[in-house]
Structure formats: C-alpha cells, structure tokens
Design goal:
The chain has 71 residues and is an all-alpha fold. Helices cover 89% and strands 0% of the residues. It has helices at 2-30, 37-70. α1 (2-30) packs antiparallel against α2.
C-alpha cells in the first residue's frame, strides 16, 4: 500500500501548501501599501497559480489512486 501512502502524503502536502498560501496572502495584503498595484497583482497571481498547481496535484494523485484500485 505504498501508493496509498504516497497519495496521503500528496494530500498532506497540499494542505500544508494551503496554510502557507494563507500566511503569504496575509503578509501580501499587509504590505500592499508599500508596493505598486502591478507588483501586488503579480504576487497575488503567483499565489493563485501555486494554489492551483497544488490542488491539481492532489486531484491527480487521487485519480491515480482510483485508477489503480480498479485493477
């Protein structure tokens, strides 16, 4: 059941990434006044992209697990 352990680890890492993203966004909004709108917007987009990649990786891991269970 090594694959299940790997899938669980991906889910845990995705959760950790979400927590880090929340802290990063909080810091970003606190520093908003010290940066241009363009810089703020780009950092916000970076955070969103990282979150999307994290979510996609968890979804992919779950789908791989479901596919392997079918065999």
């Amino acid at each position: 059941h090594k694959v299940k352990a790997l899938i669980d680890n991906v889910a845990h890492c995705e959760h950790e990434a979400n927590l880090i993203q929340r802290r990063l966004l909080k810091s970003l909004f606190q520093a908003e006044a010290s940066m241009t709108f363009a810089t703020f917007y780009q950092w916000q987009k970076v955070c969103e992209t990282i979150a999307a990649i994290s979510n996609l990786s968890e979804n992919l891991a779950c789908r791989i697990g479901m596919t392997l269970q079918l065999k």
